Amino acid sequence: MSTLRVAIAGATGYTGEELIRLLLNHPHVRLTYLAASAKWDRPVPVSQVYPRFARKLDVSLEALDPARLIESCDAAFLALPHGAAMELAPKLLQAGKRIIDLSGDFRLGNPSLYPRWYQFTHAHPELLTSKRVVYGLTEYHRDQIKAADLVANPGCYATSILLAALPLFQQKLVEDGRLLVDAKSGLSGAGRKAETSLLFAETAENLRPYKVNSHQHMPEVLQEIQRVAGATPKMGFTPQVIPIVRGLMSNLYVKTSAGADRIAAAYVARYPAAQAPFIRIRPGSLPQLRDVIETNYCDIGFVHDPDLGYATIGSALDNLTKGAAGQAIQNLNVMYGFPETAGLL
Amino acid sequence: MSTLRVAIAGATGYTGEELIRLLLNHPHVRLTYLAASAKWDRPVPVSQVYPRFARKLDVSLEALDPARLIESCDAAFLALPHGAAMELAPKLLQAGKRIIDLSGDFRLGNPSLYPRWYQFTHAHPELLTSKRVVYGLTEYHRDQIKAADLVANPGCYATSILLAALPLFQQKLVEDGRLLVDAKSGLSGAGRKAETSLLFAETAENLRPYKVNSHQHMPEVLQEIQRVAGATPKMGFTPQVIPIVRGLMSNLYVKTSAGADRIAAAYVARYPAAQAPFIRIRPGSLPQLRDVIETNYCDIGFVHDPDLGYATIGSALDNLTKGAAGQAIQNLNVMYGFPETAGLL
Amino acid sequence: MSTLRVAIAGATGYTGEELIRLLLNHPHVRLTYLAASAKWDRPVPVSQVYPRFARKLDVSLEALDPARLIESCDAAFLALPHGAAMELAPKLLQAGKRIIDLSGDFRLGNPSLYPRWYQFTHAHPELLTSKRVVYGLTEYHRDQIKAADLVANPGCYATSILLAALPLFQQKLVEDGRLLVDAKSGLSGAGRKAETSLLFAETAENLRPYKVNSHQHMPEVLQEIQRVAGATPKMGFTPQVIPIVRGLMSNLYVKTSAGADRIAAAYVARYPAAQAPFIRIRPGSLPQLRDVIETNYCDIGFVHDPDLGYATIGSALDNLTKGAAGQAIQNLNVMYGFPETAGLL
Amino acid sequence: MSTLRVAIAGATGYTGEELIRLLLNHPHVRLTYLAASAKWDRPVPVSQVYPRFARKLDVSLEALDPARLIESCDAAFLALPHGAAMELAPKLLQAGKRIIDLSGDFRLGNPSLYPRWYQFTHAHPELLTSKRVVYGLTEYHRDQIKAADLVANPGCYATSILLAALPLFQQKLVEDGRLLVDAKSGLSGAGRKAETSLLFAETAENLRPYKVNSHQHMPEVLQEIQRVAGATPKMGFTPQVIPIVRGLMSNLYVKTSAGADRIAAAYVARYPAAQAPFIRIRPGSLPQLRDVIETNYCDIGFVHDPDLGYATIGSALDNLTKGAAGQAIQNLNVMYGFPETAGLL
């Protein structure tokens, strides 16, 4: 297999850093361009920003220049703040480049949702409904991803919730049309932003809920449940920050009289090990975060209480890996016909 | 007011340590006896075990001796492992001492529940149904606590859940007879036990669910909802350990079409500031842990989504304070007619 | 004793918050004015910024207004960024108010040191040499503090180093005129500043040295060793940030052939328990941080190796308490003739 | 190159786990046997103990059986508690196996040191002076390691200290024959032991010095300085535990009038990038831990203050990687003629 030239725009955020970490071990990819919105006068050696990558990578970090980006790569990962990819992507597409976008800019098919959930009006609504743009939940859209020019990589919360919820909705096991999710994320999920609320002295020894029932990952969850399972549930969502760097746990509470065996069967049937190498099903208990940190696994465990009539499903992943950079590379692998696990095991 | 002589049995656990911390600031109490099950040959200065209490306390720590305990105190806090208070309490009661027990030994009125939830057969079932023994959820049983000889201090999870759930059940706002709780606790909740699973290197950068739908605090929650509100809901419960030392957050998910105003009204009516000085109601969002750490407050916030038909209620407290030692002292204050906030603000 | 009216300028930083926490338990003080440089349109209830102080304090937080400050208080704590107290203090002094300043603005007697160590030229050099201004290392300057109008509260590192070093220099036990210090501080020491380097995801699982041999607390250490002990050592200093919220540990390495007994004697003689209630001497080992957190203690332990010819001295304190707000209150107590431990045990 | 069959005895400790993590990416090695002292009735799938290694490894964990170990491997890593390798190693050597031992059992050449520093009498003193046994500080003993049958892998503290100290002693830059070291380690360095002092609730928000001037890594440091540089300094050593999982930082304080340039030259000459791929020299500042975590790098930075006459040298590494498993694999690579960085970049 020939080597693919790959660029990262937004290489100084946590997601960009994780992309570098993973791609350095990818057998079919070569990093050719690393850019950030920072105002550098001249390229900076990657070892200066990320000493742990020294001696593994001789590409420099430079200020983002679309022309340089286009000439340097075959495919580009965009790990930019919300709103930036929307402007940059069309130029890349026009130049024939393929894109994996890790922001929310292309996740929602309905442009009218952007003002409410992302506080901007979408500049290229035509792309949102184009077949060239695909929502990159790998385990559900491999064929379209293969053909896509732009993959909208799912949000971290959305990935953990959808992988756990979709089999239940597809099997029509959810009985009251409601999906209740209690989720916890590490601080890297908030990005490398200079905000007081993200300081160590504010977040250590704390747990902070935020955006209850109003987080921007909700519409993509609901959109996807409708597309994949034809269901239109109502959703309750409680995201919370806990004092860990990486890791994300979503607990789903779902009304169902299906017993533990039927639930297990729904998961196992949907995620056979051979075809879903990154999904691990653990009936009988809920997973812990340690087992997935720095891996591309999503561990799904559940407990069903027949008397209660509810299933409690825990879905654990690393927000930077399966919840962002890992899944993005999984999508790249699918797009280019590489083995799906290339660079990820 | 005269000074009450108070003993602590189990002074070397986290709860015992918190009792000392708080009682040192109590205006009407004098610590006269501190004991632990440790096998000390002779009394050890408290400053040796707890240097931060040096110069504040001249009582030594000694090996637990019931006779010494009885002669030293008017009232005793028992902060012993489950099963130990069951043996010790009758001796103290016979000697005319009043007790606040922080274990689960006297929380359940039905002795037949002990083998399943606590793995022992209760040695004194007659006490469980005696009027001398009262479940110490202060805000709900002040009159009985005042007259009690033994107060069974509620569990930390149970306290946070009940304070948030009872007003809703009393007002009959819960529509489907179900109570779903997703809770997170700091490591001090597990006690000062030499177990591999509690090591820093196992728990840092981790979140671990455990005892899903099978935690021993469930029966006291259900017992109390029935006693106070006459309701018999089914309960789902997901306790989780997160890497903090102190703090406990319970999120309750409750089906209700009552709007935010009615919910707020239910809480405000049940917990008027003048009569429930440690309950703070925060409509419109969920509380964070920082605001309650090392306080006796329980912060209750909620969000109601009319479209979803569910209320999400967050109940935050410090597991060692309002969830254990603080509430225990609050109960002592009620038992002896001290101001309820004495030593706790 | 009558009640002193006390103000805090800079009440929204970590030091300001700690001042509030401690002063709420002070028997002779009433908080009458809390201000911050934040641009609030109108006063904000303290419970909104600090929910844990709710029901304990009915003063609001407001934008700093010198006139309001002057009229509201008898004495003021200034917990402002470096450079701000220098402008504000003269106005307060002129109005007859007494000040405890927690910044570095008045710590150095030689104005020519400010440009190098604090990057500003001092606007009121005459105050630096005035007898009205005293360096507030309580254990060493009680008499002058009693008479002072402005107490320059020592830096957190400086406090821990000086309390451990001064007895050795006074007793002339340091043989080569060198003081080597390796120190570690929690993140609250850096203040509540929105800087990327202070984020949880940057500081957790990290240790970061900074300003090696160039930290601004060095000149006040050297100045004080000269004033108190007449010595002019050379100093090496390695400050480091570790992932804790509070706490500061300074290890001193000192060449000396004095045996452990003479060293112990030097400390015990200088800090008799009755006269130095916040200094605890622990020969034979180095203290741990837990024992001093949220206390005003400075724990000093040491090991002397005769073969090596060096003493290793550990000096542990809470950077927000004995290293800032606690010592500031200790100084207030001395200034006004309150018991030195008032509000601090 | 053919594939080497490799065993790990002690696979359930943190070091054993790190060996697995790294060896899974090693191109010339196959894990054939994983054992622990745990009393398992039958082999346990590695994915049960370490879910993150699932799908990467099909070897089971089993109770340590010397015969099975011998028949399964060409070379063995021993990651056992101190004292265990001493008994096991001779059997393996007799069977013609080569060993990398990660305990202290073969680090000291003088058997008479064991009772004092390790609390046991060495059972095979003849091995300690045998040429078959080599101290595995890779950067200094490549030739002997190549020929060794048993490599005694250096201690974590010792590695960080020696890599920083040896060039200075070799260049005779240390002027007073003293080496003062202030070091901090994460909790994984203490091993996966069920001890109260290692609990999250005891170690979070704490820093704890221990074994000051009496840690068992001291004699190997002094032995190696003598062997390599012919110097016999006196050493002061302050090890400390800080609340991180991985990472170790040693600060060395060394009297020298050599300027920064000569010090830099000493390091650069001793560790040219081409020949010491895991040593990174950073003149002018001290390294932070983040840059080395989960890498095999040792970052050495320094500051020299001519006026003080001391150099402050910081040496940072990951205690589980360069401080244990990584260096062990580096030694394996040397022993078998693999590229020294195989599996480690």
Question: What is the fold's blueprint, element by element?
Answer:
The structure is a homotetramer of 345-residue chains.
Chain A: E1 4-9, H1 14-23, E2 29-36, E3 44-45, H2 46-49, E4 60-63, H3 66-72, E5 75-78, H4 85-94, E6 98-101, H5 114-118, H6 125-128, E7 133-135, H7 142-147, E8 150-152, H8 156-170, E9 178-185, H9 200-203, E10 208-209, H10 218-229, E11 234-241, E12 248-255, H11 260-270, E13 279-283, E14 298-305, E15 310-317, H12 321-336
Parallel strand pairs in A: 1-2, 1-5, 2-4, 5-6, 6-8, 7-8, 9-11, 13-14
Antiparallel strand pairs in A: 3-4, 9-12, 10-11, 12-15, 14-15
Helix pairs in contact in A: 1-12, 8-10
Folded structure, characterized:
The structure is a homotetramer of 345-residue chains. With 345 residues, chain A is of the alpha/beta class. Chain A has 2 domains: 165 residues, Rossmann fold; 164 residues, Dihydrodipicolinate Reductase, domain 2 (2-Layer Sandwich). In chain A, the strands form 2 sheets. An 8-stranded mixed beta sheet of chain A has the order 3-4-2-1-5-6-8-7, with helices on both faces. In chain A, strands 10-11-9-12-15-14-13 form a 7-stranded mixed beta sheet. In chain A, α4 links the parallel β5 and β6. Chain A is globular, with a radius of gyration of 20 Å. Chains in contact: A-B, A-C, A-D, B-C, B-D, C-D. The interface between A and B is large, with 44 and 44 residues.
